[in-house]
Amino acid sequence: MGQTNGNQRKRVLLLTTPASYRTPAFLAAAERLGLEAIQAVDLPEPLAREWNVPLGVDFTRPERAAEQVAAFVREQPVDAILPLDDSATVLAALACARVGLPHNAPDAALAARDKYLMREMLAAGGVAVPHFQRFSAASDPAHIARQVNYPCVVKPTILSGSRGVIRADDPDQFVAAFARTRDILASEGWAPEAASILVEEFLPGFEVALEGLLTENGLQVLALFDKPDPLDGPFFEETIYVTPSRLPEETQAAIAETTARGAAALGLRQGPIHAELRINERGPWIIEMAGRSIGGLCSTVLEFGTGYKLEDLILLQAVGERLPEPDMAAPAVGVMMIPIPASGILRRVDGVEEASKVPGITGVEITARLNHPIAALPEGASYLGFIFARAETPVAVEAALREAHGRLRIRITPEIRLRPIAAPAR
């Protein structure tokens, strides 16, 4: 494993960001597998040199960054270029195309990041999607409010992690939701004239997340997570993921089939895939699909009977090694992405030790920084931390996660914004 001709280690270039949760897990997996991992980080070149990062590129300029990555790879060949986050999927496709490595099409990678393009391509491919419309963020929401059906969901076309995603049940709620989403886009540097907002039909139902690999033989499902908390709005904060799924086998088969058709419609053909689906009496509906693995620290709960982690399987496929047959080692596992209850300054998180002692809990990790600002949804872009569990049944996992969360005591104080002091009159 991890060897090439001449006993030279296989090499993989990881495209990542300074704040990515995924980087340590992939570096550890590469070490386990005997692969040489090189990092290309979303950093200015001078800062990359100062931090001893082999390659610093600007992910927001994918064409230029792809040329830099390709030039690096021509000098120092690698067996695979792997994006770890959504921000690098287009760059990875462009760079791989330049150096002749297997890759998803750049258009497919872009569609998996742009919610409007994704829905257009899914619909064109015959995959069920909610009714949707796209509007300029500069539009008058009062005018649009008379054109849409309710309930509906307002969401930016480009942000991830449920940021700016808001349900509206009537015109007044719509106007407020549209304005709030526009403000969130502005906080990310998007002028209203340059940004788009998607308005789509609200789908009732139960949500799941599918983790898989796209291979030449099609979709290989690695895990199907239930999301037992209702996601009905007005905001859509994901909390608990539990696998294996408790859904009937025929429903799980329909979810896998819909995901495979969705990937084909987008043009995704290889590598990791993470899909979010909603299931109701009309069947499975794709809400999101990305050409990367699950976010945050969620993958740490996944262990396969062969002793491999999720990142091991992704790396093995990327460098062309044969994949083992996945077999979940534990009867059930789960993770809670600890929600941020309010915006402000995080002062304390007490009860971590007590939460860790709950039977079935395998770890509690607070990732938010104390005495720093944090934001709740829909403005927030992260979680307070993660709780991990393992038990005999999915029901026991879910119960352990809820009990552990109930033992945490989170103290957040309002963020004080000082007003500028006016100059005294003369």
UniProtKB/TrEMBL annotation:
InterPro entries: ATP-dep_AA_Ligase (IPR052032), ATP-grasp (IPR011761), BL00235/CARNS1_N (IPR041472), LAL_C2 (IPR040570). It comes from the Bacteria. Residues 119-319 form the ATP-grasp domain. It holds the Pfam family LAL_C2. Keywords: ATP-binding, Ligase, Nucleotide-binding. GO terms for molecular function: ATP binding; ligase activity; metal ion binding. This is Phosphoribosylglycinamide synthetase.
